[in-house]
Amino acid sequence: MAVTTMAKALNAGLRKALERDDKVLLMGEDIGKLGGVFRVTDGLQKDFGEARVIDSPLAESGIMGTAVGLAMAGYRPVVEIQFDGFVYPAFDQIVSQIAKHRARSGGRTPMPVTIRLPFGGGIGAVEHHSESPEAYFAHTAGLRVVSPSNPMDAYVMIQQAIACDDPVVFLEPKRRYWDKADVDDTVDISSAPSLFGARVVRPGTSATVACYGPMVRTCLEAALAGEADGLDLEVIDLRSVSPLDIPTVAASVRKTGRLVIVHEASVFLGVGAELAARITEECFYSLEAPVLRVGGYHTPYPPSRLEEEYLPDLDRVLDAVDRALAY
């Protein structure tokens, strides 16, 4: 057990996957010699060689198309998209080819492509560097979409994603890359909790707060601040947005009677909208208030000097909880 950052935990998880299976390959812009923009792949090319940790051209569509061919040939490519807003040139490859191929082949040909995608704001970056595109991919049948919120989950989940025979969009909350926590590198991923299961990270009785990725820390801070006002919030880390672990959320809502969903992306047609609809269907007679959502506004991502006004924070989470409790 050692204290480490999420970035270093991801590096350790990628290293384990490369050691475990010689069919695992990493591809991306500047991931080799440089070690990636966020240094997540630092040292891996030196240790595993240029044939397994590949510095690609600046061509996201070409990178993704190459990954399709490699997966069809029996490899397990792990593709890094340098920033969230750079994924769109590869969108056609992801939704038209990668997402559909396993079904198209009648299940005979797996498509074990892991797409590492640093996402979200909070680092003061310029346009195309702070987006939250998860709803595009969650809407696409055939893709799995997950996001770790802490170093331990990052270490385990990246290995589970690479081992999955379905394509996985692996959303890495970039502003949490430097958060530190204990990581147990002796964990066997085969016995770890499911990649697609939610987790109650803070039990409570007043209301349920469901979140994922960068918002988990924000919601835990809100729950701690709410204690001063007598609030006892249950916080659920969804971990997976496709599929959604509805049973875990529903069990919590049946206990608390209220649900607030928090994510950085716009609430308009976002992940929270789907979760709200499903919980309303499942828990209608248990709900004491409408399901409320907290998220980004339905505007293009703002300049960095305005992003604090755009991103959900502790106050906006607690305001939504107060409104739910007022019913």
What's this entry about, in short?
The protein is built from twelve helices and 14 strands. With 327 residues, it is an alpha/beta fold. The strands form three sheets. A seven-stranded mixed sheet has the order 3-2-4-5-7-6-12, sandwiched between helices. A five-stranded mixed sheet has the order 9-11-10-13-14, with helices on both faces.
Describe this structure in words.
- There is one protein chain.
- This protein is α/β, with parallel strands linked by helices and 327 residues long.
- Helix content is 35%, strand content 20%.
- It has a 7-stranded mixed beta sheet, sandwiched between helices. Strands 9-11-10-13-14 form a 5-stranded mixed beta sheet, sandwiched between helices. Strands 1-8 form a two-stranded antiparallel sheet.
- Strand 2, helix 2 (44-48) and strand 3 (53-55) form a beta-alpha-beta unit.
- Helix 1 packs parallel to helix 7, helix 3 packs parallel to helix 4 and helix 8 (215-226) crosses helix 12 (314-325).
- The radius of gyration is 19 Å and the shape is globular.
Secondary-structure map:
Layout: E1 2-5, H1 6-20, E2 24-28, H2 44-48, E3 53-55, H3 60-72, E4 76-80, H4 91-98, H5 101-104, E5 114-119, H6 134-138, E6 144-146, H7 151-163, E7 168-173, E8 180-183, E9 199-202, E10 207-211, H8 215-226, E11 233-237, E12 240-242, H9 246-256, E13 259-266, H10 271-283, E14 292-296, H11 307-310, H12 314-325
Parallel strand pairs: 2-3, 2-4, 4-5, 5-7, 6-7, 10-11, 10-13, 13-14
Antiparallel strand pairs: 1-8, 6-12, 9-11
Helix pairs in contact: 1-7, 3-4, 8-12, 9-10
